[in-house]
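Deliverable D4.2, example record:
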Amino acid sequence: MSTRTLIRGGLVVTAADEIHADVLIEDGRIAALAAHGSDAAAGWTADRTIDATDRYVIPGGVDAHTHMELPFGGTFASDTFETGTRAAAWGGTTTIVDFAVQSVGRSLREGLDTWYAKADGNCAIDYGFHMIMSDVNESTLKEMDRLVQEGVSSFKLFMAYPGVFYSDDGQILRALQRAADDGGLIMMHAENGIAIDVLVEQALARGETDPRYHGEVRKVLLEAEATHRAIQLARVAGAPLYVVHVSAEEAVAELAAARDMGLPVFGETCPQYLFLSTDNLAEPGFEGAKYVCSTPLRPKEHQAALWRGLRTNDLQVVSTDHCPFCFTGQKDLGRGDFSKIPNGLPGVENRMDLLHQAVVDGHISRRRWIEIACASPARMFGLYPQKGTIAPGADADVVIYDPHAVQTISAETHHMNVDYSAYEGRTVTGQVETVLSRGELVIDQRKFTGRAGHGAFTPRSTCQYLS
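Output generated by the structure prediction step:
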């Protein structure tokens, strides 16, 4: 049974264009666009018509950095693939790329299969996987080639978390060399974890146990140093590099300098670094624990450099690093010792709205909003033009967005499975109204109509900025 949906009267916004156009969807894909009121559009018929007058019609968001059900610090991220992908849909995101985890001493295959099993049949929207490499050795290096062929074409390494995910410079170099050969993209958590652990130990010995010290020991200079080192290792290997969750002005400067030399170096930041700061980490009592993530929140003055990096394309992507832990029962594992607070913030539902607020505030343009939230992550991770745009042949992942609606972000009304909001009480302009995933209504006029199991695993090609 062929089904056709027609979206009429909206302003279609992509990374490249803004056009008043009607959009015809057939069998889960974009079939055609035509100027609103044109003869071509007037002749279209459909089983279902959506009126998008005074609305934006935008591609579904691509969140290329989420951690559903992640084991961390003796607990698990509180969003399952079911709750997390449902919340993503509410926030206008129609594709996530989550992180499968290799355990030390085990194969990449075993880790990936575990994550396939977690997600299969549970997702409301489409998903892919990156592979966290915790143990770089001859065997896992060989496995990288097979995973790239399978559509898992990116690998995350950590310069932080000694004893958990940490890789030394030799392991990092080997993985980068392998990626240079097989087309994979190395994603780097760039913080000097060895030095940070010394500072943590010293702070705790001084009795500095509150959440705010989490930000103080994870120094800006140790993010910048690791970013610089990662870039040099990538140069030696002749490999591209993607630095995740960039939070500090000095780290942006390292990326900008590399890009000015023409190197294939890319950077991502997250809404928490654009909208929150060390002021949140220093909230009284134990409230600051809600904002413990790594890289940590920085002093407010770093925000200007991040916005500038997004405007100049020294930063290409805004992802969430969504990794929620409940304040009660999870974050409070670190009462009396900030180093035991599970690292991570909820945000998969808030990204598109916060970035639209950035358009309203004049930080970025409408098209840049779509570029950093939809098109660039899709290109970076081999999903474009299936995802990230509205064009004939693309998956019909479409959001009808009301740019005038005013909403207040709150844990009372969000759909993430976590007992607080990092943006509690913040008023933003703009709200998701209707969401289609491959032509199927997931959110219909602010009502959830999706289902677990609609979302499909989406194999990815290699990074499209390099081809």
